[in-house]
Structures are given as structure tokens and as C-alpha cells.
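Consider a typical record:
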Amino acid sequence: MDTTTTQRLAIIIKDLRRASLTVGITLLLGCLGFYSISRQLLAAIQLHLHQKLAFFTVAEPFLAHLTVAIAMTLFTIMPLLSYFIWRALAKPFKLSRPLVFGFLLFSCLLFYSGAAFCYLITLPFGINFLLDFQTEQLKPVISIRDFVSFVSIFVLAFGLIFEMPIFMVFMAKIKILPRSFFEKNRRYATLVISVIAALLTPTPDIFNMLLMGLPLYMLYEVGIIVLKLLRIA
């Protein structure tokens, strides 16, 4: 690791360390607030996904409601987290204020678009597919803890994965991965996207994989188009 990289990392870590107290307090307050309405939130999720839940240990309902509170807090404060991350990256990589604002804005838009896409489209299809295997002799009894963890992880993961164009623009801007790299490696990008879709979609069937894979590849192409429009080589 060269000296410049070490210095940049030191600046980023120092900036993020200063922000950690604010993030910690916000996370704590958010969890307390969302925990107070976690019953209503869980009921809304159950209604949307048409699921009846059960619990198998004494602590399981409490842990499930706590998971809902944590996931909703992370979902809500994502703009704040994005702000601190881009602010930390701005100084060492000499990003202008308009560029940082653009990164922040589109990071939030893409994150919430990906999360909404997962919650409204991918999860209902995936869960229905999995539950189609039930029979008269085999009825599902779904653990509340597993259900909440399953939904939370997939929604947040989809949101983060949908930020791919921002990652591409940033990597090209700081001259780590130029635009030509993305243009020349479409076949490898397709392979990586297929693997990600297979890992993150809740079911192994081709339909649900395409529900994630196609939007991701479209976002990859959007990233290349944006790089051309911004004239970033």
C-alpha cells in the first residue's frame, strides 16, 4: 500500500470516527422509536406478504420486534449514513461539492428504489414460489424471527446492490476503474450479476433471478451511459 493510499485511508477513517457518535445516537433513538411501533410495522409486513407467523422460544417475539426496529432505523437513516460516507471520501479524493451532492442524492434514490423493488415485487413472488411446495400433509409454520430476518436482509441488500451506477461513476472519477474497463468487461459483469442474483433472490428459480438480474444489468449500462454523459474516461 503506497503512502498516498495510506494517507487517504487515514483521512477517511478519521472523518468517519468523528461521525460515529452522531450515527450511534441516531441509531439508538431510531431503534427506540421504531420499537414502540414495531407491532404495527410487523402487522403491515405480514399483511403485505400474507403470512401467519409463530414463535418457538420465549425471547423470539422480542428479538423479532427488535430486528424490525433496527432494520427500519437503518432504512430511515440511510441518507445520513450516505452523507457521512461521501463527506469522508470528498477530501482525500478531491470531490467537488456539486459532485458530492449528486453522489448523495442518487445514492439515496437508488437505495430506496432497490428496497422498494424488493419489497413490492421480488419478495412476494419469491415467498409465494417457496410456499407452493406445501401439501395437505406438509403445512408451513414460519418462525417470526426467521421471517423478519429474511425480509430485512433482502430489502436492505437489494437497496445497496442497486447503488451500482454510483459505485461505477466514483471508481472512474478517482481513476481506479476507467470507463473502458466497464465497457470491455460486459460479459464478466453479466456473470457477476448472475451470481449476485442467484445469491440474493429468495428462490432459485430463473424467474426470480431475472427479476433482480435484469434491473441490475440495466443499471450497469446506465452507469456506462452516465460516465459518457459526464465525459469521465
Residues 3-162 form one domain. The chain has a mean pLDDT of 87.
